[in-house]
Amino acid sequence: MRKILTFSLGLFAIATLITPLTFAQEKKTPEAAAQEQAPTVTIAGKVSAVSDTSVTVVDDKKAEQIIAIDTNTKITRGGKVATAADIKANDAVTVVASKGEGNALTAVTIKVG
């Protein structure tokens, strides 16, 4: 009987510790959650044009891809946080983008350099 009580108290203690961790997960905006669930593609190439809302990348097969940039896009340059304004024409980039409706691409991450 004592073993059963000890075992039950142990399970209760573990459940008590795990439950707050489950509910303490980071809350995400609906847009961020949708980007994480959407299939992604990786595009590597050189920037031919850039604005605050999109980047155009030409890959090694000379295919041009226009990729939207939104508030959830994480941009880094040399391992440091950057913005779209830090991306210049002819920069080498690696973009991980989610596919949306009509195969529209939205950047999840952009690594410059």
Write the layout of secondary structure elements.
Blueprint: H1 2-23, H2 30-37, E1 40-50, E2 54-58, E3 64-68, E4 74-77, E5 80-81, E6 92-99, E7 105-112
Parallel strand pairs: 3-7, 4-7
Antiparallel strand pairs: 1-2, 1-6, 2-3, 4-5, 6-7
What oligomeric state do these chains adopt? single chain
Q: What overall form do the CA principal axes indicate?
A: elongated
What is the succession of H and E elements?
HHEEEEEEE
End-to-end gap: 65 Å
Tally of strands: 7
- Fold-level CATH name: OB fold (Dihydrolipoamide Acetyltransferase, E2P)
Number of helices: 2
How many domain regions? 1
Secondary structure class reads alpha+beta
Structural notes for this entry:
The chain has 113 residues and is α+β, with helices and mostly antiparallel strands. The protein has a single domain (30-112), classed as Nucleic acid-binding proteins (OB fold (Dihydrolipoamide Acetyltransferase, E2P)), CATH 2.40.50.140. Helices cover 27% and strands 38% of the residues. It contains 2 helices and 7 strands; from the N terminus they run H-H-E-E-E-E-E-E-E. The chain has helices spanning 2-23, 30-37, and strands at 40-50, 54-58, 64-68, 74-77, 80-81, 92-99, 105-112. A 5-stranded mixed beta barrel has the order 1-2-3-7-6. Strand 2 and strand 3 (64-68) form a beta hairpin. The model has no long low-confidence stretch (mean pLDDT 84).
